[in-house]
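Researcher: Batch entry, complex prediction.
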Amino acid sequence: MSSGAAARWVDAVVVAVSDVATGVRRIELGGPPAGRAAPGSHVDVRVHTPAGEDVRSYSVVESGGADGRVVVSVLHTRTSRGGSRFMHALRPGDGVRVTQPLQNFPLSVGSARHVLLAGGIGITALVEAARVLRLLGADYRFVYVGRTRDRMAYLAELEALHGDRMRVHVDDEGSPLDVDALVGDIADEDLGRRTELSMCGPIRLMEAVRRSWSDRELPSYNLRFETFGSSGWFEAEDFVVRVPELGIETRVGADSTLLDALITAGADVMFDCRKGECGLCVLAVTEVQGTIDHRDVFLSTAQRERGDRICACVSRVAGVGGEGVLVLGPP
Amino acid sequence: MPPLENHDRVTAKIFPHPLNAWYAAAWDHEVAGGSILARRIADLPLAIYRTSDGRPVALADACWHRLAPLSMGRRVGEDEVQCPYHGLRYNSAGRCTSMPAQETINPSAMVPSYPVVERHRYLWVWPGDVTLADPDLIPDMHQMSSDEWAGDGLTIEAQCNYQLVLDNLMDLTHEEFVHGASIGQSELSDSEFFTRHEEDGSVTVSRWMLGVPPPPFWSRIMRHRFPDFAGPVDRWQIIHYYAPSTICIDVGVAVAGTGAPQGDRSQGVNGYVMNTITPETERSSHYFWAFMRNFRLESQQITTELREGVRGVFAEDEAMLTAQQRAIDAHPDHTFYSLNIDAGGMWVRRILDRMLAAEETGGQAAEPVEPVAARRR
Ligand code: FES
Ligand code: FES
Ligand SMILES: [Fe+2]
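Model: Structure tokens for the complex:
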């Protein structure tokens, strides 16, 4: 269910490309049989950008068949760091390195009610989930938000398939989404506390939903979102960590983690998930110069505000241009 | 896949089971109140319960944390279970909703929740690829919950591979030898039977025995409807198989020569033997059965008498199946050979093998089946 499988890189071939909306390119990849991807799967793709090789994640929109076909749809963004430009330049016959479908946004079929919320290209993460919910006869709503109709991929097909379970909001048609009203409606219904909302879209939309969700005191575990790796509030930068009791002082590079730096320096630190989830790597903070960029989901807001602990596997010190210093108690 | 290529797999003694299928996991009444039923379905241990509003739920029976069985835990809240070990709670979607010893909940914490549908007095679970779990694929057992039929049934925990039960039900010539005292008669082996393999993947085996003496079981039932009945009957057995493992048998007798073979069953009695067999492990199965009838619906006495009668008959099958499985395991080098009477069972095996092959390639469904095949003895 939740992503456990390690990524396996394989060679795939572009089988077909086509435009499914303004700026959105559908790319069909053929490769080793991958079976059918579970709803909420993505593939990682090795992209070539002006800055060198990099990895991007794209949701699997369709999959299956004996030939292991996987379809992704990619939005061309002018501000991108080169990933979408690379993907849009692909032509049938081109080779790409991809992983097998990886599951990090699993659909759970047993909820009393489901709301799926897609903003723009975020639709790609929810198309398959919606299809499965419909097949199962589940109680679901599918909300699709976009700026203009021509930029909303799969809109016509989805409206035809989901009928009145579908709500479409288009900014420039004067029907933008009222987030508080959407969340308020969920909260007011009998099944409110047993409704799961899964969303994928622009960070501003998702933040608004999160705020409204906690204002309405809906259970946090029923709010599911696809982030493709939490990125923190700051760019990663260098900082120095000191553990006086152990006589350790070492630099944490922008491309390393606090946990790795401590272990390399000889500290015996406990950890398990390395994703900021389990809390086993939490260390006591005695002093900090700079700001702690909490990137974990283990510490509560209140615990973060106290500023006296840090999840060493993902969180960092930032906001001071590489001059940050972190002093820790003994692990 | 061409039939020739896979033929060895078709006669496998320990037959694998498809996962992309609805399997009966429990009778509706077995999961009630605040209970959590532990049951292994298609080799998956499940914790099955109902939410406060009665919706059935099937979660993997192992806590995300240290894998303690959730079925040993408690039903709490509207739709949750609480792990008996360190108290994590999960909702009906399998999401963890509470980690008692910390202020947040790890968003990755969840257990698989399987699709469940309540239909025909059973809870059906889909253990395979959820994207294919179409409730329309649940086999037609409408007699179980129809106003025009009455009856009841039980479960046999059969200590054998599920395919052995299917073989047993697809060929009823065994009645003469296994059920000689109740429903068996020598005319079973002497009569013609027809096997039809339908386009939709179902198989039908029909047998008519005309002008035969009724065996004890059927004489008694006839007298429930026609107290003065005596004499020969026309007897029928029409076996309907629905993939992967449901068999509904249209059975009955009518006064001989009153037109039953032509469709007039008014001078007879008609029952349906409902069977759906769920693999538990490679060598054990949950065998759910019921006997339904379409006359004297008001009589609970007849319902009970029939259920107890069939229970006795099926106990004879169970003893045979258990012994057969033991002999199979004691002779690992011996293979199965087939007889003409195995036509129905062999079609079932071929259909199952195609389902398995489709699952191996990740394909969506079996390739179209061949044209209707008929075999005549
Ligand atoms: S190792 Fe799990 S939170 Fe850091
Ligand atoms: S094993 Fe379930 S809470 Fe620990
Ligand atoms: Fe039998």
